Amino acid sequence: MDSTPSPSSSSAFGLVSSALGRYIPGGGAAAAAGPAQAQDDRAVRRGVPGDPAAGQQDQILGAVNLDRDLRITRCNLDAPVFAGLHAVIGSSFVDLLPPRDVPTVTRRLRQVLETGEAHVARIQRLRRCDGSELVVSLSILPAAAPQEGLTVSLIAMARRLHLYAAETAIGTSLDIGETAQSLAQSLLAWGDVAAVDLDFAVWTGEGVTGQGQGRIRLRRAALVPDRAWPEGYVTPGDDLPSDASRLLAQAVRRDDAPQAIVIPDRETVERVLGSPRVMRALVPGDRSAGVACIPLVLDRAPPVVLGVAEVWRRADCPFRDSELFDLQELVARTAHHVDLARQHQREHTQVLALQRRLLPRTGGDTVEIASVYQPATPDSAGVGGDWVNSFPLPDGRTALVVGDVVGHGLGAAATMGQLSMEARALLSAGLAPDEVLEHLDKTVTLLDDAESGLAAGYSALGSTCCIALYDPVSHHVALSSAGHLPPVLVSPDGHARPLAVRPHPGLGAEFALREPFDVHRFDAPPGSLLALYTDGLVENPVESIDEGIARLADAVSRVHPWDSLQQTARHVVSALAPVRRRDDVTLLLARMIGYRKGDTATWRLPARDDAPARARAQVSALLRKWRTRGDTRDNVLLLVSELVTNAVRFATGPVTVRLIRTGHGLLCEVGDTGNGRPRLGRGGLLDDDGRGLHVVHRLTTRWGVRWTDTGKVVWAEVAR
What we know:
By secondary structure, this protein is of the alpha+beta class. Helices cover 34% and strands 24% of the residues.
């Protein structure tokens, strides 16, 4: 390297250069000696394990002077630790940097030139001629006169400082791949190539124990530096050959205890690995001959091995004892970060599986359903509590439900699953949307009760939910919302608008803030499109929530009736949320189809004794028109007669009879103004009390009750 003698003591470069003697053992003898002598001295010191002088060279100060074009004008990098840096006068300083760091460091250099304010203590990697990297603390100092350029001081980082910086960097992500990559990058300071191989159970987030280590299966989780590797070499995401996994597992568990091992040269590596296939898989190249293998161990009884970290070096640069201690300390300090990432991966996988289990499967014959669920980024606090569901109700209607549970992780997932299943059960039992929300509101309040033991540091207060029930005969929708964002309705002519749903504080609100849940009713003729979503789809830091909803309305207004609804849903999500976010994104699209007019019929009859006979006559004529089989026709007539008789006997006001021809049967509905709930008792067909319900039960595949504003509707389905 070029050095500039007798620098001016008044310049920053001179001040840094004059301090070099205090950091170089022997008063700078290595710098003053000839190149051959210095090289021999470095070789001798590297070959003596634990040499005190070698340990003193772990932190060496150097200086480089740059002109305003960022070219080197003077340099003093004669300390042995800077060997291999190609700092030639006249060359560009950025040639010393890894390509990925050039834009950032160049911007910093220009800033110091323009502002005159120093930039100090940047942890930076420099490229050596052999492709390896040196970790330094880089400071950029302005010259006394602006036209003189800059002085860059370099301090080769002490191992203790590097350990602290590495541990801090490794613990910043909950993604297991990024955690392993950070560990590998930190290990690169001790060698030419670093790799992290994890037990497959750790990679997938499964539980690990101290047993069964002989059957360890390793997968490469990280590898640095990023370069073109020879064919057959194991790269991130690949499983190590079974022989290689077994050898590494046996090596690091000598005497049944995890231990670090060092294979010093290529001859020994070939003898240990044996198979040429294993050599191609593990050895990164001809120049890398020695390797240190350090197990990632959880300090338990017995110890648990999560994987193996490998650091490869050239044969002329053996590992010193002090370096092995540092490597083991770094891996030991960061093993718990890997385990935390494993636990997060397991929780993320479990919650994601639950949420995908709740996604709608089908919308039935009267409504077309499409849904998209996009989980939060893996390194966030965990998958959120978004849930969406759609299912046909037994009475022929379709329920559309979307909710957003507060928080992330397993606590939110447990609450999400409970609320989703409870909503489905209550809706199937015939409750109205506002009544279902009242029950969910109580459930959230109970779950937040500390005495129940379910809180465990998690609160679901403030969760939101929106429920819509679509009637395919009347083409009406009844909708209730608990603090959720308003759905967007697209009419058959393409006009899109958010529904004017009254705001609500959400589920589990304080008693003083609680308000009754409203029911918003609107028409949804065939061809209408309803979009329900969670806030992750429309929230954006650069715009208001109203602007996000307007963008959603504009996107769904362009949906053509012939477009594939599932493909459309994916396009809408990619347009509004093109990048992964720290909150879940959920969208449910429902295209209303309904029943054809010829498949339904409705009659209103006065509550008189002749009502059953009139109902039988009307229904009989319709069934003949529909060409219904004789046995089915007889069953339906008997069913309608019993239901109308019960309505006249136990209720007042007019009786409504509705018959619907579905794809798999006939649906009979009889509505009245009574508020009593029909119950099937234990009496037989000959008992006068309850005989009608026993007849209904025997003739139908299923039956039930739903409540209306004016009374109730008893429905029953007969197979065709």
